């Protein structure tokens, strides 16, 4: 279903400023002559042309990173920390420009782009601080006669593959720990949103990251890229954020070269609201967990389970919040919901809504795609979603809230865990015992308790089951780019 409507256009000054930022980007890469177009999802217009690397050119990038990485691994951790801190400062001082870039290539409203910069830059600051923390340890051999020492060494050349939904944060959350650990990097951003990564890496060079240490490989040939690059013996690590299907392909490729692998994959997050929740807190939390980034987040609340006693009031309040959202170009003032990433996403969302209503879900607001050159979808709320609806099993990845109701805690937990995914979960209750009991029973890597935005650079982010392997952020995120070396020091007794 589509509706004809006029959506707010970009504010002219912001549009002109963003055009200036785009015009000043250095996109050309020597030796790479083919290019592909990058589009603004709010207008469908081409905003840039970036180099389209083939597999040979990607391997040249591997060679350059490998060469630069030799001296980087030998630098002191204080040196790396100082450079990362300088990079953080440059990201913050260029936040206006980065925000405009994020909004132009990805579509999210400017205020959300700024929030992403705060979040994304925080990984750089965190790893500047973390780089110098002692990482080894010393133990006594249980049988005596030896001291057992461990230290951490950089794992080596790291291939980083990122999605389009957080163009800055997905890149910094991988690049910063890799550099802190002493690794060279080849990063392949999503073809929809390569510009923010290119600009952020240029800032890293300005901050003192050596030339060639971080290679940005933009390409429309993702399978050829990964097949060639992950088989290269100089590569020792792959870190991927994206869909579970692609993650499985990459894990198979990684197996042949026995690469250390980190996988941040898809989610199907349950959000549980109990009768004893604070209604306002629960509505705020659910709104944030569902609608942040237009619902295009791997930890977005995909299935909202609400207990019978609070359900009517909760649904009414959340419907009002969604219906009040202004949809339009992310550069227009007051817009709370920008476009989804492309027209395929619009078609997918329309299909999910149609399937759910066909199976008996009640459509309380939204449900349509405004007819527009950009790719928009209305903020939508469906109540009484049956468990067999496609959107109860699929990652919605858009501004569609799907409510299911429940009577008993155990039933809600069983339904929440009835998925192959296990990235995030959410619990809303004012009862502390219930909060921990339910959080402990949710089969997810992270749980927001009375909290709709649980991500934090200082916390280990990652999934269980088919949502992934490894963690990003915190000290655990640094270990993903390190390997442990162990020395056995023999000790003779002396008298
Ligand atoms: P995607 O898997 O289609 O693409 C992600 C990246 O992988 C892109 O750069 C893409 O070009 C690349 N890619 C695709 N096929 C490839 C191949 N054969 N070899 C190498 N690279 C390949 O995902 P997307 O649509 O960009 O992002 C949405 C997905 O990402 C959702 O499933 C979402 O849940 C997930 N995600 C997960 C997290 C997390 O931390 N767990 C964070 C953000 C997004």
Question: Short summary of the structure?
Answer:
One of its GO terms (biological process) is gamma-aminobutyric acid catabolic process. This protein has 495 residues and is α/β, with parallel strands linked by helices.
How would you explain this protein's 3D organization?
Belongs to the aldehyde dehydrogenase family. This protein has 495 residues and is an alpha/beta fold. The protein folds into two domains: 31-265 and 468-483, Aldehyde Dehydrogenase, Chain A, domain 1, CATH 3.40.605; 269-457, Aldehyde Dehydrogenase, Chain A, domain 2 (3-Layer(aba) Sandwich). Helices cover 40% and strands 20% of the residues. It contains 15 helices and 20 strands. The strands form five sheets. A seven-stranded mixed sheet has the order 13-15-16-12-11-17-18, sandwiched between helices. Strands 8-7-6-9-10-19 form a six-stranded mixed sheet, with helices on both faces. Helix 6 links the parallel strand 6 (157-161) and strand 7. It is globular, with a radius of gyration of 24 Å. Nicotinamide-adenine-dinucleotide is lined by residues 161-165, 188, 190-191, 222-223, 225-226, 241-243, 246, 249-250, 264-267, 298, 395, 423, 463, 468.
How is the topology of this model organized?
Layout: E1 2-4, H1 12-24, E2 35-39, E3 46-51, H2 55-73, H3 77-93, H4 95-106, H5 110-130, E4 137-140, E5 146-154, E6 157-161, H6 169-181, E7 185-188, H7 195-206, E8 214-216, H8 222-229, E9 235-241, H9 244-256, E10 260-264, E11 269-273, H10 279-291, E12 301-307, H11 308-323, H12 343-358, E13 362-365, E14 369-371, E15 380-383, E16 400-406, H13 409-416, E17 424-428, H14 432-441, E18 446-449, E19 468-469, H15 474-479, E20 482-490
Parallel strand pairs: 1-14, 6-7, 6-9, 7-8, 9-10, 11-12, 11-17, 12-16, 15-16, 17-18
Antiparallel strand pairs: 2-3, 4-5, 5-20, 10-19, 13-15
Bound molecules: nicotinamide-adenine-dinucleotide.
Active site: 264
Family: Belongs to the aldehyde dehydrogenase family.
Protein name: Succinate-semialdehyde dehydrogenase [NADP(+)] GabD
